[in-house]
Design goal:
The complex is a heterodimer of chains A (131) and B (477). With 131 residues, chain A is an alpha+beta fold. Chain A is 16% helix and 34% strand. The longest helix of chain A is centred in the middle third of the chain and has 12 residues. Chain B has three domains: 193 residues, FAD/NAD(P)-binding domain (3-Layer(bba) Sandwich); 133 residues, FAD/NAD(P)-binding domain (3-Layer(bba) Sandwich); 102 residues, Immunoglobulin-like (Sandwich), CATH 2.60.40. Classes of the chains: A alpha+beta (131), B alpha/beta (477). Bound molecules: flavin-adenine dinucleotide and iron/sulfur cluster.
Amino acid sequence: MERELTCIICPRGCNLNVEVNYNDGSNKNKYNNGYSKNYTIIVKGNNCPKGEQYAIDECINPKRTVTSSMRVSNRKDTMVSVKTEKNIDKDKMFKTMEYVRNTRVCAPVKIGEVIIKNIFGTNIIATENID
Amino acid sequence: MIDGTDKTKNKDKENFYEYTKKESYQQEKVENENMEIEKELYTEHNKEYDIEHDIVVIGAGPAGMAAAISAFDNNVKDVVIIEREEKPGGILKQCIHNGFGLHKLGRELTGPEYAAYYEKMVNERNIKIYCGTMVIDITKNKIITVQNKDGIFKIKAKALILAMGCRERSRGALNIPGTRPSGIFSAGTAQKLINCKGYSVGKKVVILGSGDIGLIMARRLSLEGAKVEAVCEIMPYSVGLKRNITQCLKDFNIPLYLSTTVAEIHGSGRLEGVTIAKVDENRNIIEETKKYIPCDTLLLSVGLIPENELTKNAGISIDNFTNGAIVDENRQTEQSGIFACGNVLQVHDLVDYVSDEAEIAGKGAADYVLNKLNGQIIIKTVPGNGVRYVLPQRINLIYEYNKNREDYKREISLFFRVTKPFGKIKYTVKLGDKVLNTAIRLKASPGEMEKITIKANDLEKISNKDEKITVNLEELS
Ligand SMILES: Cc1cc2nc3c(=O)[nH]c(=O)nc-3n(C[C@H](O)[C@H](O)[C@H](O)COP(=O)(O)OP(=O)(O)OC[C@H]3O[C@@H](n4cnc5c(N)ncnc54)[C@H](O)[C@@H]3O)c2cc1C
Ligand code: SF4
């Protein structure tokens, strides 16, 4: 099965052509969750190795960084910007947002400080200093 | 009162002593505690300015901070930055998404992280940022009038760097027919309200304009639980980065309608809906294609304009295409000693290039203060076929090359934008008929700034002073 993707790793945005072949000859639409090696993926159009990795991830287990901001409870009208430390599964984006929305932090906050621990395999960290 | 560095304070003090001696002023009065007040009274009424600095930077966004750092690192240590907001960082404070710094720092940061990285470097150099201080006027003699909670002051700079960024075009500039209900925001305002204030702007949203800010906001609103019904783009293509079309629209199944605009606004009190319609090549609305979309929020992401009111006050000419000052390769404007960089000079899509440009301006300003800028011949650059503008618009050549071999070998980068999306193309830079450089690209888009370099020593052979440098585009099949 062939897929056309746009690489989102850098602003160049290469067009990727991805060919997924299952070794049993079938053209399954659904990918098994990345762990069994019964398929091959051929990526074309990438201008660097990162593009290939992106295409493979995108076909097997797409991931995204989620960024948002969170209310600072002890500062008036103040938000602190946050992000997922590592990329999370794409289908967990909304769930992650919900956690972020329902959490308050207390200033001071330092860049890189962990705000929510261990959520979908990563942490939510601050991306801004609040004194 | 803005606090000068100790050095400048003493200088002012000395001037004051001189004066008092001359005018046989009462010496004791000067030495008492009220001296500072006296000094202020005196300076305000009898001198053109209150404080002096070698380099003053206006704006503490990424451009202003990088320019100040570069000036400092190029051996001018008396550098200050004036910022009207309470915190440095400029527009990056509200750009909480990631996608900053990949070129420049080799890793992907969010806007606030990129700003913090530069703020740290500014602090390490003890460069002072005066926050909450607005520049209200500049003159061609580099006297800056600033206002803050303590009043109005004048600062004299040896060199001045303009880094005021840009502002958004408003609906007024668009003239959409219909009512004027609430619920219509510029995309940047909505971004600030949501990201920095934690407000929710609406539940059902239409976005006009598919530039990066519009796309980023489509994703942000979707993640916040709003339904983005459509992104409309009047052009037949999007000027936003392709990665943003993928990760901001496709990820959330948001439709992008090209050659489409908002034809009418409906609702009294709060916005109730908009009529969208296709446009023809002349951007006229095609009546039969009109379609009503109910929504409570309309975001306008219809372009940015460099903030150049101050620049114009100083009598600096503005380029009609960039809407920024006309500059040379050091980013010096037509007024000697006044430099410009970042979004105030040309609207950038990547902050990394803002930082690069600011470093050039910072070095230029430092060289100016140290009397190292000595160009004598000016060659103009002009956009050729398929190219909208070229920056810098002029290049200063040093006449006697052997005096300065380092300069002789330098490379000059020309930045430009194409007029519309192209497939495979070839760029040719020429001086008169002589080819200086060529480059082939597989594709080009007006949304992405292009760069090509030329060598300064190639320009030496210029035979006719009126010869121009042109950047041309040629389509390859
Ligand atoms: C919404 C949005 C999203 C973006 N997304 C990306 C992205 O994903 N990746 C990327 O690389 N780039 C992105 N960019 C581009 C990049 O962030 C900007 O080009 C860059 O921040 C511009 O920097 P600047 O310093 O020129 O201007 P600004 O950041 O606007 O800074 C100008 C500063 O000058 C101050 N100022 C103005 N006038 C005065 C005055 N009279 N007196 C005192 N101070 C004054 C302002 O308060 C402000 O702090 C985005 C831009 C926007 C607007
Ligand atoms: S393939 Fe490499 S160069 Fe192309 S967009 Fe992806 S990361 Fe950038």
